[in-house]
Amino acid sequence: MEPKLEKHLNLLTERYPILEPCRDSIIDAYKIMETCYESDHKLLIAGNGGSAADSEHIAGELMKRFMTPRPISEEMAEKLKAIDPVRGENLARNLECGLMAIPLVAHEAMTTAYINDVDGLGVFAQQLFGFGRKGDVFLGISTSGNSQNVLSATVVARALGIRIIGLTGRDGGELARVADVAVRVPETETYRIQELHLPVYHCWCMMLEDHFFGGKE
């Protein structure tokens, strides 16, 4: 394992020793995301309730700086300033590089229309079908591993050639069986599972930022 990755994983398990059994699955899931972003693809994320909030949280950490500045390239900065010297100067100074991440829970008009007009359990599947391309990654978050709308999305993901990461609880449910990698945090109570999901995905975000933008030592 790369020293930088091991550093983040060691910090995670030092702070949360209960996650020690998840080390291999956490790094395997990270490697899937790294390959995705190396190929200029994207992460699509879905969950319900608290896991919906986690989906947006993850996207927020990936689409802008998490712990490390991510300045745009000099080439892009010069293009912006050439188009508009005033606004371009400000944008060149303030824009940040991102890793494309789409929370499928965030599109209220489209999702409520689909739920109302077509199928309540197929809404994530519909979004994945519209947004997803081969080489992307679907991160399904479900404390039980049996959320039907998340599982429907995994069927579309497999049909499109999209790899699947499951973030779930100890039992794993069906999600753990269909995912390419499942991180099954060792708790069974919903709120305790959610409490461990956050440090796991923060670790992923730090690893990705370190790899692509040069994180803090």
Q: How are the SSEs ordered, and which strands pair?
A:
Elements lengths: L2 H13 L7 H16 L4 E4 L3 H14 L10 H10 L1 H10 L6 E3 L4 H10 L5 H9 L5 E5 L6 H13 L2 E6 L4 H6 L2 E4 L5 H24 L4
Parallel strand pairs: 1-2, 1-3, 3-4, 4-5
Helix pairs in contact: 1-10, 2-10, 3-10, 4-5, 7-8
Description:
It is a single chain. With 217 residues, this protein is of the alpha/beta class. It has one domain (3-68, 98-213): 3-Layer(aba) Sandwich (Rossmann fold), CATH 3.40.50.10490. Helices cover 58% and strands 10% of the residues. The protein contains ten helices and five strands, in the order ααβαααβααβαβαβα. It has helices spanning 3-15, 23-38, 50-63, 74-83, 85-94, 108-117, 123-131, 148-160, 173-178, 190-213, and strands spanning 43-46, 101-103, 137-141, 163-168, 181-184. The protein has a five-stranded parallel sheet with strand order 2-1-3-4-5, sandwiched between helices. The radius of gyration is 18 Å and the shape is globular.
How would you concisely characterize the structure shown here?
Helices cover 58% and strands 10% of the residues.
